[in-house]
Amino acid sequence: xxxxxxxxxxxxxxxxxxxxxxxxxxxxxxxxxxxxxxxxxxxxxxxxxxxxxxxxxxxxxxxxxxxxxxxxxxxxxxxxxxxxxxxxxxxxxxxxxxxxxxxxxxxxxxxxxxxxxxxxxxxxxxxxxxxxxxxxxxxxxxxxxxxxxxxxxxxxxxxxxxxxxxxxxxxxxxxxxxxxxxxxxxxxxxxxxxxxxxxxxxxxxxxxxxxxxxxxxxxxxxxxxxxxxxxxxxxxxxxxxxxxxxxxxxxxxxxxxxxxxxxxxxxxxxxxxxxxxxxxxxxxxxxxxxxxxxxxxxxxxxxxxxxxxxxxxxxxxxxxxxxxxxxxxxxxxxxxxxxxxxxxxxxxxxxxxxxxxxxxxxxxxxxxxxxxxxxxxxxxxxxxxxxxxxxxxxxxxxxxxxxxxxxxxxxxxxxxxxxxxxxxxxxxxxxxxxxxxxxxxxxxxxxxxxxxxxxxxxxxxxxxxxxxxxxxxxxxxxxxxxxxxxxxxxxxxxxxxxxxxxxxxxxxxxxxxxxxxxxxxxxxxxxxx
Length: 529
Ligand code: FAD
Fold this sequence. Notes:
alpha/beta; Serine Threonine Protein Phosphatase 5, Tetratricopeptide repeat; 4 domains; five-stranded parallel beta sheet; binds flavin-adenine dinucleotide
């Protein structure tokens, strides 16, 4: 027993990468400082209970499985491996702290409430076992807690305000860019028995999903190497980077018009900081380029903006108790929700998007706009929380902070308040795809409908429908609502809800003003502090 080495654990959760991973580097440095004493074990904990309740669709499980496999391969290149441990972190850790003679634990910080609680619990266990814990914020370009602190412990609620704060924060260099990785090779000093122990192998796909028929085409394979290669491909296209303007990209092109780096950023297969620095290198060499908020750099800043806001509110993904969200009396309607989430609303543009999402796990940002507006304030008057849940299951890039933040935006519940700007489920898609090629791909039953009518099949006579081989109500659904009338009714409901929210806010402000007047002593004391 006395000859057992002291183990340093790096715990992967997100941040599934070897490049620009400060917590992993901290662990490697400790081992390198005295390889005869320390050994490194990078671990990933797979909690079988989570498999049961987590809302993760088959495509995302596959992405995770591939990311773990690539991580294992990349760790092998630096003389280590990935140890996948099965169990619940709070019960797994005390066992491995003892059995592996652990002295140090490193990991990347996370802002999600579930993770914050889990990490606090693990830290307590580590303390009880005399294990030193080091956490590093590296999932975002800026540490959300630092941004909050710089804004007087409040979240900036506009993008402009956020940008004015981060302009003054220096972004540290992206550590160990991939080309330099072999330099970081650590001594292979774990016992051969452990290095080869099959019980720590990366799970096969059938450990994660029981029904393979739910898998769609593998358009975006998971993993660090994939993410880095994808970034490299885009960076080479200087013209694309410098002229990128989000509103000019297309929601319904057959191949993505934006980078699809989001799943790689979500799992941390790609470092957002590396993305940021590499982008800036290109932009510096080409001073004539697009600017935030619509530029590519501007897109990355939206991610930072939402992360900062989310870090300040554990109820960010709920309407009630959420300090950002307006309270809106959404309706429950299981039939509508089911039709929307399975691409059966009778609006071909909306249905094509939702089917692409279910099949492939990624849809364009403006396509997300269209379906989110349709579900909430535009047409179906269903809560953004319901849409968020469907996205959470189906998106490869599903992210607690970004999903909630954007759903609040699109439902005009927070951050965006021009609720009267409603997307037309007919006209919006026509602008970039007048012939409806995108619709034909994802709603093939409509493939014979001509350009003039494919966005509005209800305008075809029964004879024409028969001629096109797709009769509404039989081969393709009748539309579930009439947009032309329903969106106007919803506008009135939004106006009413905004009025009530404003009154509520005014009442709260009046009460706190009144408190200050009634109790001037306590407030002056506070100010002196
Ligand atoms: P690009 O345009 O190439 O942008 C590069 C990167 O910038 C993205 O990978 C992403 O990390 C970031 N980014 C771009 N737009 C946004 C944005 N509006 N908010 C935050 N970050 C942004 N994005 C997620 O990553 N996860 C989600 O769960 C998610 N849910 C969304 C829900 C709704 C209702 C809407 C409207 C948007 C949502 N988004 C989400 C934001 C955005 O749609 C995606 O990040 C983007 O479409 C990903 O494609 P891309 O990588 O090609 O983006």
